[in-house]
Amino acid sequence: MNRPKELILVIDFGGQYNQLVARRVRECNVYCEIYSYRTPLEKLLAMKPAGFILTGGPASCYEEGAATCAPALFESGVPVLGLCYGAQLMSYVLGGNVERASMREYGKTEVEIDTTSALFAGVSPKTTCWMSHFDYISRLAPGFRATAHTANCPVAAAEDAARGLYAIQFHPEVLHTPEGSKMLYNFVRGICGCSGDWKMDTFVQDSIKALREKIGDGRVLLALSGGVDSSVAAALLSKAVGNQLTCVFVDHGLLRKNEGDEVEAVFGPSGNFKLNFVRVNAQERYYAKLAGVEEPEHKRKIIGEEFIRVFEEEAKKIGAVDFLAQGTIYPDVVESGLGGESAVIKSHHNVGGLPDFVDFKEIVEPLRNLFKDEVRKAGLALGLSRDLVFRQPFPGPGLGVRIVGEVTAEKVRIVQDADAIYREEIAKAAEAWRKNHVSCVEGTIINENGEKECHRNGENENPPWMPDQYFAALTNVRSVGVMGDERTYDYAVCLRAVKTIDFMTAEAAQIPFEVLQTVMSRIINEVRGINRVFYDLTSKPPGTIELE
Ligand code: XMP
Questions:
Q1: What is the pLDDT of residues 414-440, one digit of tens each?
Q2: Is the CB of 536 within 6 Å of ligand 1?
Q3: pLDDT tens for residues 266-304?
Q4: How is residue 495 annotated by DSSP?
């Protein structure tokens, strides 16, 4: 792949924030990649990085077998910033001392810093930082001076500026260190001298060129789910190779309301992209296979296997292709532990197993180096709508895991209608909130027209209660109600809404009661087959986000 000229290497020591460090660097418009600490130094230096950042990690650097790095890293002349474990390791390797403190320093902490350090230029002399450490630097390595301290930590930062070596005990990458981004900016743009050549428009243009070169006049096949990653991959590939690309979109009848038509409107013949779009309407096939099946894992298995069968049939019609395209993104690469070193095939529910039966020569993964927020930016740069680009996560088995018990066409209709009302009302309430809250919480950027725009992680600002994922699910409970003068015996729908950062843990979102009431009354009045609405308060764990 064509790397931007300027590169920062993030060396991963197993810290929980390693991807966040990399994202913050990229927010400074500087490209970076994450590599394991086990990667040989020669290989790292051969990439000609402008700087290294050593991440945090769970170990103690003085213990036998602890993660370490070659001492020559610090002699290479390339600036190095150590964070938390990385800071301790730098001190330890260079002759300082690291010890276990009597108490762990954890949480938001006031730190006093020396603003004459290039790392802290423009930062307030007293600022807040996020600490999370037991070990601490008890004696500085020769040549180093302390540049920050807290009440309990004598060396909250240190440096040997002449050698370009910087250490920070706290975590500048998390939002709990409000001036942390400035520190990382000072390192990559100031100390490492990067000018900031990582821009999404440039990435898109460079990728189009590189894809054209790689694909030549070859044929490409992509399984399009309508989700963010596969949609952005389709848009990028279609700009690069036009109708050498065939996208197969399987409508399994378990999509949200109108979603199949929305995907077709964007990528089909009347959309803005030039490609071969094949929509397979497999609804009836899926409902027939799912009839009478109640057990959640059994349902998932049927949906997954049926997807492969349908795709296989389509692939046979198309014949041999040169490339199979996948929407793999950078977190998939990092989480697989490969750190960008070799090809990964995303074992995503939707595409699992595809390479076994599709006749192709090579895989192309045009989004392999992008984080999710960058994929979204690329999508916008390619002309996809905000609605599509900021779509919520949607499970591969779709509404199949949002209908408790047996799936039928009628239940799909009920849950689709209820879910559409729920999403519509949340969008309305969020929009009303935005009208009354013009101030920005997490930063203001100036757009191309010189106007101020509120952005939070690339999205428009949202109300504090705004869930990260929300949907209606159909319970298997039927209960008695009264509608007009008639007794009803209908289903109960469950409204789920969670706040989550990583989707591994989640809390129920505190949607205002009046919004929930509006949703309830609209669902009961407008959706035939529902006479009761529940709001799910369960956190994860012990619950999962989906009902099945
Ligand atoms: P759970 O329900 O496990 O969900 O708490 C965590 C996140 O993953 C999504 N999810 C899936 N995504 N295939 C997918 O592609 C699946 O089978 C699947 N199951 C859950 C879920 O929507 C949530 O965002």
A1: 999 999 999 999 999 998 887 776 544
A2: no
A3: 999 999 999 999 999 999 999 999 999 999 999 999 999
A4: E
Can you list the pairs that 356-359 forms with residues at least 24 positions away whose Cβ atoms lie under 8 Å? 357/308, 357/312, 357/315, 358/221, 358/311, 358/312, 358/315, 358/321, 358/324, 359/315, 359/319, 359/320, 359/321
User: Which are the contacts of 400, defined by CB distance < 8 A and separation ≥ 6?
Assistant: 252, 254, 290, 299, 300, 303, 407, 548
Query: Are 419 and 474 spatial neighbours (Cβ–Cβ below 8 Å)?
Result: no
Pair (187, 209) in one structural domain: no
**Any domain includes 175:** yes
Q: Is 295 a catalytic residue?
A: no
One-letter amino acid at 10 equals: V
The pLDDT value given to residue 1: 54
Tell me: do 355 and 261 sit in the same domain.
yes
Considering the domain architecture, whether residues 219 and 160 belong to the same structural domain is answered as no
CB 220 within 8 A of CB 245: yes
Kind of pairing between the strands at 323-325 and 362-364: parallel
231-263 burial code (b ≥16 CB/10 A, e <16): bbbbbbbbbbbeebbbbbbbbbbbbbbebbebb
CA separation for the pair 233, 443 (Å, rounded): 29
Q: Whose CA is nearest to atom 24 of ligand 1?
A: 393
Round to whole Å and give the CA distance between 297 and 320: 33
Structure confidence by residue, pLDDT tens digits, 226-275: 999 999 999 999 999 999 999 999 999 999 999 999 999 999 999 999 99
Please indicate, yes or no, whether residues 390 and 265 belong to a single structural domain of this protein.
yes
- Exactly one of 28, 84, 129, 153 is catalytic; which is it? 84
Which one is catalytic: 105, 129, 159, 171? 171
Q: Identify which of 138, 157, 154, 42 has the alpha carbon closest to the alpha carbon of residue 99.
A: 138
Would 290 be classed as within a structural domain? yes
Examine the residue annotation and report whether 298 is marked as an active-site residue of this protein.
no
**Phi, psi of 163, rounded to the nearest 5 degrees:** -95, 0
Q: Give the domain range for residue 242.
A: 200-400
Residue 173 known to be catalytic: yes
Task: Report the number of distinct structural domains present in the chain.
Answer: 3
| CA distances from residue 256 to 317, 350, 394 in whole angstroms, order as listed | 28, 16, 9
Instruction: At 360, list the tokens.
Output: 């192709």
In 3D space, the residue among 351, 383, 4 whose CA is nearest the CA of residue 210 turns out to be 4
Ligand 1, atom 11, lies closest to the CA of 395
Contact assessment for residue 346 and residue 306, using Cβ atoms and an 8 Å cutoff: no
> Kind and range of the H or E element at 260?
helix 259-267
Cβ atoms of 259 and 266 closer than 8 Å? no
Q: What is the pLDDT of residue 332?
A: 82
Angstrom distance (rounded) from CA 56 to CA 54: 7
Question: Read out DSSP for 142-187?
Answer: TT-EEEEE-SS-S-SEEEEGGGTEEEESS-TTSTTSTTHHHHHHII
From 191, 213, 229, give the residue that closes a domain.
191
Indicate whether residue 392 lines ligand 1 (CB < 6 A): no
253 located within any domain: yes
Q: What is the pTM of this model?
A: 0.84
Listed residues 166, 191, 216: the one ending a domain? 191
